[in-house]
Amino acid sequence: MSSANKKLIVTISTLIILLAAVFLIFKNYKTEISRVSAVKFGVTFTKARAEYLGLNWRDVYLSILDELKVRYLRISAYWPEIETEKDSYNFSDLDWLIDEAGSRQVKIILAVGQRLPGWPECHIPEWAKNLSEGQQQEKILDLIKETVNYYKPQPQIWAWQLENEPFLNTFGICPPPDRKFFEKELALIKSLDNRPIIVTESGELSTWINGGRYGDILGITIYRAVWNKYLKYFYHPWPAVSYYLKGKLVKFFTGVPKIIVVELQGEPWYPSGSPLTTPLDEQFKTMNLERLKNTVNYARQTGFEQFYLWGAEWWYWLKQNSHPEIFNYTQELFKSQL
Protein backbone atom coordinates (compact mmCIF):
# COMPACT_ATOMS: atom_id res chain seq x y z
CA MET A 1 0.00 0.00 0.00
CA SER A 2 1.38 3.37 -0.97
CA SER A 3 2.17 6.00 1.67
CA ALA A 4 -0.51 8.26 0.16
CA ASN A 5 -3.16 5.56 0.64
CA LYS A 6 -1.99 4.99 4.22
CA LYS A 7 -2.33 8.69 4.98
CA LEU A 8 -5.79 8.72 3.43
CA ILE A 9 -6.90 5.75 5.56
CA VAL A 10 -5.48 7.35 8.74
CA THR A 11 -7.23 10.62 7.92
CA ILE A 12 -10.58 8.94 7.26
CA SER A 13 -10.24 6.81 10.41
CA THR A 14 -9.46 9.89 12.50
CA LEU A 15 -12.47 11.74 11.10
CA ILE A 16 -14.73 8.77 11.82
CA ILE A 17 -13.47 8.60 15.42
CA LEU A 18 -13.97 12.35 15.88
CA LEU A 19 -17.47 12.23 14.41
CA ALA A 20 -18.34 9.29 16.64
CA ALA A 21 -17.01 11.15 19.70
CA VAL A 22 -19.03 14.26 18.81
CA PHE A 23 -22.14 12.14 18.29
CA LEU A 24 -21.72 10.42 21.67
CA ILE A 25 -21.08 13.72 23.45
CA PHE A 26 -24.18 15.35 21.98
CA LYS A 27 -26.27 12.25 22.67
CA ASN A 28 -25.15 12.35 26.29
CA TYR A 29 -25.74 16.12 26.37
CA LYS A 30 -29.37 15.71 25.34
CA THR A 31 -29.84 13.06 28.03
CA GLU A 32 -28.30 15.22 30.76
CA ILE A 33 -30.20 18.42 30.02
CA SER A 34 -33.44 16.46 29.95
CA ARG A 35 -33.03 16.06 33.72
CA VAL A 36 -34.16 19.63 34.40
CA SER A 37 -36.03 18.53 37.52
CA ALA A 38 -32.63 17.94 39.19
CA VAL A 39 -31.43 21.51 38.63
CA LYS A 40 -31.23 23.61 41.80
CA PHE A 41 -30.90 27.37 42.10
CA GLY A 42 -29.58 29.32 45.09
CA VAL A 43 -28.11 32.77 45.67
CA THR A 44 -25.00 34.48 46.97
CA PHE A 45 -25.67 36.94 49.80
CA THR A 46 -23.32 39.71 50.91
CA LYS A 47 -24.04 41.96 53.87
CA ALA A 48 -21.87 44.74 52.44
CA ARG A 49 -23.80 44.77 49.16
CA ALA A 50 -27.11 45.22 50.96
CA GLU A 51 -25.67 48.03 53.08
CA TYR A 52 -24.22 49.74 50.01
CA LEU A 53 -27.71 49.85 48.50
CA GLY A 54 -28.96 51.58 51.64
CA LEU A 55 -30.85 48.51 52.87
CA ASN A 56 -31.12 46.84 56.25
CA TRP A 57 -29.02 43.74 55.58
CA ARG A 58 -30.90 41.60 58.08
CA ASP A 59 -34.21 42.46 56.44
CA VAL A 60 -32.83 41.56 53.02
CA TYR A 61 -31.45 38.26 54.27
CA LEU A 62 -34.66 37.23 56.03
CA SER A 63 -36.59 38.14 52.89
CA ILE A 64 -34.32 35.85 50.86
CA LEU A 65 -34.95 33.02 53.33
CA ASP A 66 -38.65 33.53 54.04
CA GLU A 67 -40.14 35.26 50.99
CA LEU A 68 -38.01 33.82 48.23
CA LYS A 69 -37.63 30.49 50.07
CA VAL A 70 -34.01 30.09 48.98
CA ARG A 71 -32.57 26.82 50.23
CA TYR A 72 -29.02 27.01 48.81
CA LEU A 73 -26.77 29.88 49.87
CA ARG A 74 -23.22 31.02 49.30
CA ILE A 75 -21.94 33.43 51.94
CA SER A 76 -18.45 34.69 52.74
CA ALA A 77 -16.27 35.12 55.82
CA TYR A 78 -14.95 38.60 55.01
CA TRP A 79 -11.66 39.35 56.74
CA PRO A 80 -12.41 43.05 57.57
CA GLU A 81 -15.70 42.06 59.23
CA ILE A 82 -14.23 39.23 61.30
CA GLU A 83 -10.88 40.66 62.38
CA THR A 84 -11.36 44.42 62.70
CA GLU A 85 -8.50 44.42 65.22
CA LYS A 86 -5.42 42.24 64.91
CA ASP A 87 -5.81 38.82 66.56
CA SER A 88 -9.32 39.65 67.78
CA TYR A 89 -11.98 37.62 65.96
CA ASN A 90 -15.67 38.49 65.99
CA PHE A 91 -18.00 36.09 64.18
CA SER A 92 -21.27 37.53 65.52
CA ASP A 93 -22.78 38.74 62.21
CA LEU A 94 -21.68 35.62 60.37
CA ASP A 95 -23.07 33.52 63.24
CA TRP A 96 -26.45 35.16 62.76
CA LEU A 97 -26.43 34.46 59.01
CA ILE A 98 -25.48 30.82 59.48
CA ASP A 99 -27.85 30.22 62.38
CA GLU A 100 -30.83 31.72 60.54
CA ALA A 101 -30.06 29.59 57.51
CA GLY A 102 -29.55 26.48 59.62
CA SER A 103 -32.89 26.87 61.37
CA ARG A 104 -34.53 26.64 57.92
CA GLN A 105 -32.44 23.66 56.71
CA VAL A 106 -30.63 25.84 54.18
CA LYS A 107 -27.41 24.40 52.77
CA ILE A 108 -24.42 26.75 52.80
CA ILE A 109 -21.18 27.21 50.89
CA LEU A 110 -18.87 29.26 53.13
CA ALA A 111 -16.14 31.14 51.26
CA VAL A 112 -12.92 31.80 53.17
CA GLY A 113 -9.68 33.65 52.45
CA GLN A 114 -8.76 37.15 51.33
CA ARG A 115 -10.13 37.24 47.79
CA LEU A 116 -13.89 36.78 48.16
CA PRO A 117 -17.00 37.69 46.12
CA GLY A 118 -17.68 41.41 45.67
CA TRP A 119 -15.60 44.43 44.70
CA PRO A 120 -12.71 45.06 45.28
CA GLU A 121 -12.39 41.24 45.40
CA CYS A 122 -9.48 41.34 47.87
CA HIS A 123 -10.89 42.36 51.27
CA ILE A 124 -8.23 43.52 53.73
CA PRO A 125 -8.76 45.15 57.17
CA GLU A 126 -7.15 48.55 57.67
CA TRP A 127 -4.63 47.28 60.21
CA ALA A 128 -3.28 44.71 57.72
CA LYS A 129 -2.89 46.97 54.68
CA ASN A 130 0.65 48.09 55.58
CA LEU A 131 1.93 44.63 56.37
CA SER A 132 4.42 43.01 54.01
CA GLU A 133 3.10 40.38 51.62
CA GLY A 134 4.56 37.60 53.77
CA GLN A 135 3.05 39.02 56.94
CA GLN A 136 -0.34 39.38 55.28
CA GLN A 137 -0.22 35.80 54.10
CA GLU A 138 0.55 34.54 57.61
CA LYS A 139 -2.46 36.45 58.94
CA ILE A 140 -4.67 35.04 56.16
CA LEU A 141 -3.65 31.51 57.17
CA ASP A 142 -4.51 32.38 60.78
CA LEU A 143 -7.89 33.70 59.63
CA ILE A 144 -8.67 30.56 57.65
CA LYS A 145 -7.67 28.33 60.56
CA GLU A 146 -9.81 30.28 63.03
CA THR A 147 -12.81 30.37 60.67
CA VAL A 148 -12.77 26.72 59.64
CA ASN A 149 -12.25 25.47 63.18
CA TYR A 150 -15.01 27.75 64.45
CA TYR A 151 -17.59 26.70 61.85
CA LYS A 152 -16.77 23.06 61.15
CA PRO A 153 -19.30 21.86 63.80
CA GLN A 154 -22.06 23.47 61.69
CA PRO A 155 -23.73 20.69 59.62
CA GLN A 156 -25.50 23.13 57.27
CA ILE A 157 -22.12 24.08 55.76
CA TRP A 158 -21.67 21.44 53.08
CA ALA A 159 -18.56 22.89 51.37
CA TRP A 160 -15.81 25.45 51.76
CA GLN A 161 -14.92 27.79 48.92
CA LEU A 162 -11.26 28.76 49.04
CA GLU A 163 -10.69 32.30 47.73
CA ASN A 164 -12.66 33.58 44.71
CA GLU A 165 -11.24 33.10 41.23
CA PRO A 166 -7.73 32.93 42.77
CA PHE A 167 -5.94 32.54 39.42
CA LEU A 168 -7.66 35.47 37.67
CA ASN A 169 -5.43 38.55 37.39
CA THR A 170 -7.62 40.73 35.14
CA PHE A 171 -10.30 41.76 37.65
CA GLY A 172 -10.27 43.27 41.13
CA ILE A 173 -7.75 45.20 43.22
CA CYS A 174 -5.52 42.33 44.26
CA PRO A 175 -1.89 41.21 44.31
CA PRO A 176 -0.83 38.86 41.49
CA PRO A 177 -1.96 35.23 41.87
CA ASP A 178 0.37 33.24 44.12
CA ARG A 179 0.07 29.52 43.41
CA LYS A 180 2.41 28.43 46.22
CA PHE A 181 0.47 30.38 48.82
CA PHE A 182 -2.81 29.03 47.48
CA GLU A 183 -1.45 25.51 47.91
CA LYS A 184 -0.65 26.34 51.55
CA GLU A 185 -4.22 27.56 52.10
CA LEU A 186 -5.60 24.44 50.46
CA ALA A 187 -3.42 22.10 52.53
CA LEU A 188 -4.44 23.93 55.70
CA ILE A 189 -8.17 23.46 55.12
CA LYS A 190 -7.68 19.81 54.19
CA SER A 191 -5.82 19.30 57.47
CA LEU A 192 -8.70 20.81 59.44
CA ASP A 193 -11.83 19.36 57.84
CA ASN A 194 -12.88 16.76 55.29
CA ARG A 195 -15.74 18.60 53.57
CA PRO A 196 -15.26 19.32 49.84
CA ILE A 197 -13.31 22.41 48.82
CA ILE A 198 -14.63 24.45 45.90
CA VAL A 199 -12.09 26.29 43.74
CA THR A 200 -13.60 28.87 41.40
CA GLU A 201 -12.78 30.10 37.91
CA SER A 202 -14.21 32.73 35.57
CA GLY A 203 -16.56 30.97 33.19
CA GLU A 204 -15.57 33.19 30.27
CA LEU A 205 -11.99 34.36 31.05
CA SER A 206 -10.37 31.09 32.10
CA THR A 207 -9.64 27.58 30.88
CA TRP A 208 -10.90 26.20 34.25
CA ILE A 209 -7.87 23.91 34.37
CA ASN A 210 -6.36 25.24 37.62
CA GLY A 211 -9.68 25.11 39.43
CA GLY A 212 -10.22 21.58 38.19
CA ARG A 213 -6.78 20.46 39.34
CA TYR A 214 -7.03 21.89 42.83
CA GLY A 215 -10.69 21.66 43.71
CA ASP A 216 -12.77 18.78 44.96
CA ILE A 217 -15.47 20.72 43.12
CA LEU A 218 -14.92 23.29 40.36
CA GLY A 219 -17.08 26.39 40.64
CA ILE A 220 -17.50 28.64 37.59
CA THR A 221 -19.28 31.87 36.75
CA ILE A 222 -21.66 32.61 33.87
CA TYR A 223 -22.04 36.23 32.77
CA ARG A 224 -23.73 36.74 29.41
CA ALA A 225 -24.19 40.55 29.28
CA VAL A 226 -21.38 42.80 30.46
CA TRP A 227 -20.01 46.30 30.08
CA ASN A 228 -16.45 47.58 30.00
CA LYS A 229 -14.79 50.78 28.87
CA TYR A 230 -13.30 49.18 25.77
CA LEU A 231 -16.18 47.17 24.31
CA LYS A 232 -19.02 49.04 26.09
CA TYR A 233 -21.99 46.64 26.11
CA PHE A 234 -21.04 43.12 25.13
CA TYR A 235 -23.39 40.14 24.89
CA HIS A 236 -21.60 36.82 24.87
CA PRO A 237 -22.61 34.74 21.82
CA TRP A 238 -21.59 31.29 23.06
CA PRO A 239 -24.35 28.66 23.19
CA ALA A 240 -25.09 26.78 26.40
CA VAL A 241 -23.58 23.60 24.98
CA SER A 242 -20.16 25.31 24.93
CA TYR A 243 -20.11 25.26 28.76
CA TYR A 244 -21.16 21.62 28.72
CA LEU A 245 -18.39 20.63 26.31
CA LYS A 246 -15.77 22.67 28.17
CA GLY A 247 -16.87 21.01 31.40
CA LYS A 248 -16.48 17.54 29.91
CA LEU A 249 -12.99 18.35 28.69
CA VAL A 250 -11.91 19.79 32.03
CA LYS A 251 -13.28 16.77 33.89
CA PHE A 252 -11.36 14.49 31.51
CA PHE A 253 -8.03 16.33 31.81
CA THR A 254 -8.13 17.19 35.53
CA GLY A 255 -10.23 14.46 37.08
CA VAL A 256 -12.46 16.91 38.97
CA PRO A 257 -15.72 15.01 39.57
CA LYS A 258 -18.20 17.88 39.82
CA ILE A 259 -18.75 21.35 38.37
CA ILE A 260 -21.25 23.87 39.73
CA VAL A 261 -22.02 27.48 38.79
CA VAL A 262 -21.23 29.55 41.89
CA GLU A 263 -22.11 32.83 40.23
CA LEU A 264 -24.88 33.10 37.64
CA GLN A 265 -25.60 36.63 36.48
CA GLY A 266 -28.75 38.07 37.98
CA GLU A 267 -27.69 41.72 38.21
CA PRO A 268 -26.55 44.33 35.67
CA TRP A 269 -23.08 45.59 34.94
CA TYR A 270 -23.02 49.31 35.61
CA PRO A 271 -21.27 51.81 33.30
CA SER A 272 -20.85 54.14 36.30
CA GLY A 273 -19.76 51.28 38.54
CA SER A 274 -22.78 51.67 40.80
CA PRO A 275 -26.54 51.03 40.69
CA LEU A 276 -27.01 54.18 42.76
CA THR A 277 -25.68 56.40 39.98
CA THR A 278 -26.88 54.43 36.93
CA PRO A 279 -30.41 55.14 35.62
CA LEU A 280 -32.69 52.11 35.65
CA ASP A 281 -33.18 52.12 31.89
CA GLU A 282 -29.40 51.85 31.58
CA GLN A 283 -29.26 49.05 34.14
CA PHE A 284 -31.92 47.11 32.30
CA LYS A 285 -29.70 46.92 29.20
CA THR A 286 -27.71 44.10 30.82
CA MET A 287 -30.30 42.68 33.22
CA ASN A 288 -34.07 42.86 33.31
CA LEU A 289 -36.92 40.41 33.84
CA GLU A 290 -36.77 38.97 30.33
CA ARG A 291 -32.97 38.64 30.43
CA LEU A 292 -33.14 36.88 33.78
CA LYS A 293 -35.71 34.41 32.50
CA ASN A 294 -33.50 33.75 29.48
CA THR A 295 -30.46 33.33 31.75
CA VAL A 296 -32.26 30.75 33.90
CA ASN A 297 -33.38 28.83 30.79
CA TYR A 298 -29.85 29.07 29.38
CA ALA A 299 -28.43 27.70 32.64
CA ARG A 300 -30.70 24.68 32.41
CA GLN A 301 -29.17 23.91 28.99
CA THR A 302 -25.54 23.82 30.22
CA GLY A 303 -25.81 20.36 31.76
CA PHE A 304 -24.77 21.58 35.22
CA GLU A 305 -27.08 20.93 38.15
CA GLN A 306 -26.45 23.66 40.72
CA PHE A 307 -26.45 27.44 40.26
CA TYR A 308 -26.03 30.35 42.67
CA LEU A 309 -27.54 33.54 41.29
CA TRP A 310 -25.79 36.85 41.94
CA GLY A 311 -27.97 39.90 42.56
CA ALA A 312 -30.49 39.06 45.31
CA GLU A 313 -29.79 42.35 47.10
CA TRP A 314 -30.48 44.21 43.85
CA TRP A 315 -33.82 42.39 43.37
CA TYR A 316 -34.87 43.51 46.86
CA TRP A 317 -33.68 47.07 46.16
CA LEU A 318 -35.71 47.12 42.93
CA LYS A 319 -38.78 45.96 44.82
CA GLN A 320 -38.28 48.76 47.35
CA ASN A 321 -38.11 51.16 44.39
CA SER A 322 -41.42 50.10 42.81
CA HIS A 323 -40.02 47.40 40.50
CA PRO A 324 -41.00 44.06 42.10
CA GLU A 325 -41.08 42.09 38.84
CA ILE A 326 -37.71 40.32 39.20
CA PHE A 327 -38.25 39.64 42.90
CA ASN A 328 -41.63 38.10 42.15
CA TYR A 329 -40.21 35.95 39.35
CA THR A 330 -37.38 34.60 41.52
CA GLN A 331 -39.89 33.92 44.29
CA GLU A 332 -41.73 31.54 41.94
CA LEU A 333 -38.42 30.04 40.76
CA PHE A 334 -37.23 29.15 44.25
CA LYS A 335 -40.62 28.02 45.53
CA SER A 336 -40.87 25.60 42.61
CA GLN A 337 -37.87 23.73 44.07
CA LEU A 338 -39.45 23.05 47.46
Can you walk through the features of this model?
- By secondary structure, the protein is an alpha/beta fold.
- The protein has helices at residues 3-33, 47-52, 57-66, 79-82, 92-102, 133-151, 179-192, 209-214, 240-254, 280-283, 289-300, 312-320, 325-335, and strands at residues 40-44, 72-76, 107-112, 157-162, 197-201, 217-222, 225-228, 232-235, 259-265, 306-310.
- The strands form two sheets. It has an eight-stranded parallel barrel, surrounded by four helices.
- Helix 6 (133-151) packs parallel to helix 7.
- The model has no long low-confidence stretch (mean pLDDT 92).
Relevant terms:
single chain, 338 residues, alpha/beta, TIM Barrel, 2 domains, eight-stranded parallel beta barrel, two-stranded antiparallel sheet, 45% helix
Q: Span between N and C termini?
A: 66 Å
Cα radius of gyration in angstroms: 22 Å
**CATH H level, superfamily name of the largest domain:** Glycosidases
Helix share bin? 40-55%
Mean pLDDT: 92
Summarize the structure.
45% of the residues lie in helices and 16% in strands.
What topology does this entry show?
Blueprint: H1 3-33, E1 40-44, H2 47-52, H3 57-66, E2 72-76, H4 79-82, H5 92-102, E3 107-112, H6 133-151, E4 157-162, H7 179-192, E5 197-201, H8 209-214, E6 217-222, E7 225-228, E8 232-235, H9 240-254, E9 259-265, H10 280-283, H11 289-300, E10 306-310, H12 312-320, H13 325-335
Parallel strand pairs: 1-2, 1-10, 2-3, 3-4, 4-5, 5-6, 6-9, 9-10
Antiparallel strand pairs: 7-8
